[in-house]
Design brief:
2 copies of one chain form a homodimer. In chain A, the strands form 4 sheets. In chain A, strands 6-5-4-3-2-1-18 form a 7-stranded mixed β-sheet. Chain A folds into 2 domains: 249 residues, Ribonuclease Z/Hydroxyacylglutathione hydrolase-like (Metallo-beta-lactamase, Chain A, 4-Layer Sandwich); 43 residues, no CATH class. Chain A has 302 residues and is an alpha/beta fold. Chain A has 10 helices and 18 strands. The radius of gyration of chain A is 21 Å and the shape is globular. The interface between A and B is large, with 40 and 40 residues.
Chain lengths: 302, 302
């Protein structure tokens, strides 16, 4: 049940020599979920050694160019590499129009099915996890997303072995809560499953001013990746453009009871952005500035 | 009269870790002319320390994604940086449709005038130079371009000084072929201008199979930057996808009497592509494989 987040681009608005355009990947089981896809994301994915073929879902926060201009190239390269598996794209209302514009960009290749769905504030069930979307406070309509692993019970190999449960589909049935018969004896899930373990949660704000909805969405999350475009001395400009300061992000992480905060969407005026990290840490200790290719494994709950 | 060519991306179809998507810049006087604009061109321009504000003309060879997906981001960043100067975009028929798709890509910003013109096979006069376009032999309609400096005569400072010609607008008049009166004496252009010097010429093929039209266009050029997607052992696949081999490019450079050949649009299957260079040099000695950020100053004719 490996869960890992990789930042693929941590810049804001325009790229810099050091930060790529906004994009973030969540690795879970055998899937890669991509959030936003700024220009150059395909090269960032190559440099992070992520197989394009594992990406099966893309979530877009909003339709400012810095979050979407990498989509045409990424989808084209997938076609170039003869992908056949479908891909699913999610985003706020307006996604349909944006994708149709992409199909109109010259000779756009279509080798595999591209499914898409416009989201409101909702929760989509993907089996082992759900993705919830909440409206943010930006200059254009946008969504923040949470990835929430469902609570689960560990399969106790030792107890199952002692009870003679074979390594077969039967174990899957038990995990899913069904009782089974083994050598004439009824085995119930409670006999082989451990305590209920709460799932892990990752939240990505996209571009937003400080928002109650995002704070609520981030409640008790393991990792919050939050807009932190400027330091507090530029608060006015920051809010005017629909963004948060590093301090705002830290206040939200604290209120939400997040375990860790990573600052992203860093204005190109900053280099290593130590000042943003310092400002955030004053409020919320477990904060850091995201860098391209920073990787955050999320440990299983005990 | 500085003239210089910089390769900004030398890959084909898909980017690699080592080669960016197709783009090439010609620096002439105070202008930068951009040819093609693959994804990531704006970052390549930053890394080459090219001011976006100096770019005033963009020429697109054809509308395959690898040659145009950098346009939305480049134009957006120009707007982000509050550009006010107009930009002129040229390309084959279909440019209108592509640009309208770009305007439809989310919230595309428009802070400055974007003029554009679809070209056939023609020659456009830009004052000190002309740009000629010729249809290529690719899988979709496309154009090769030549940049041709107009022949000119050097202003002879010594002779002008001896004749008492002041350093004023009068010198410009003489350069442009007008006679002037200095202290009651008539000075004709011939009295202060040197021999007629032939202009320099750079040709960029874009994507094409070996083409008579490109060979003709490249006649006596100083620099030919030519499609060289594969080595000759992949000739069949190469032609199927509408490209040239390194050997083809060399044969064309030789036939055209080009002074120098640079191979570009290198398939991601090659690394340093030494095999392409070797193959080309067998036919045409002054050939090399282009690398991202390679710079080619074009010397003035004697």
């Amino acid at each position: 049940m490996d869960l890992r987040v990789i930042l693929l681009g941590t810049s804001a608005g325009v790229p810099s020599k050091f930060r790529g355009m906004p994009a973030l990947a969540i690795f879970y089981l055998d899937e890669v979920l991509l959030f936003d896809c700024g220009e150059g994301t395909q090269v960032q994915l190559m440099n992070a050694n992520v197989s394009f073929m594992r990406i099966n879902k893309i979530f877009i926060t909003h339709f400012h160019g810095d979050h979407i201009y990498g989509l045409p190239g990424l989808l084209s390269t997938m076609a170039f590499n003869q992908r056949e598996d479908p891909i699913y794209i999610y985003g706020p209302r307006g996604l349909d129009k944006v994708l149709k514009a992409i199909w109109g960009l010259g000779y756009f290749p279509r080798s595999f099915p591209i499914h898409y769905r416009e989201l409101d504030e909702e929760e989509v069930d993907f089996g082992h996890y759900t993705i919830a979307s909440r409206a943010v406070a930006h200059t254009v309509p946008g969504l923040a997303y949470s990835f929430s692993e469902k609570p689960y019970r560990r399969f106790d190999e030792d107890r199952a072995g002692a009870l003679g449960v074979p390594k077969s589909k039967i174990r899957k049935d038990l995990t899913e809560g069904k009782s089974v018969i083994v050598k004439g004896k009824r085995i119930t899930p409670d006999m082989v499953l451990g305590e209920l373990i709460s799932g892990r949660k990752v939240v990505y704000s996209g571009d937003t001013r400080p928002s109650e909805a995002v704070t609520e969405l981030a409640k008790n999350c393991d990792l919050l990746v939050h807009d932190s475009t400027f330091a507090s001395d530029m608060r006015e400009e920051c809010y005017q453009y629909g963004h948060s300061t590093a301090r705002d992000a830290a206040v939200i992480a604290k209120k939400a009871g997040a375990k860790k905060l990573v600052l992203t969407h860093i204005s190109s005026r900053y280099g290593k952005a130590i000042e943003l990290e310092t400002e955030a840490k004053d409020v919320f200790g477990n904060a850091e500035v995201g860098r391209d290719f920073s990787s955050y494994p999320i440990k299983k709950a005990r």
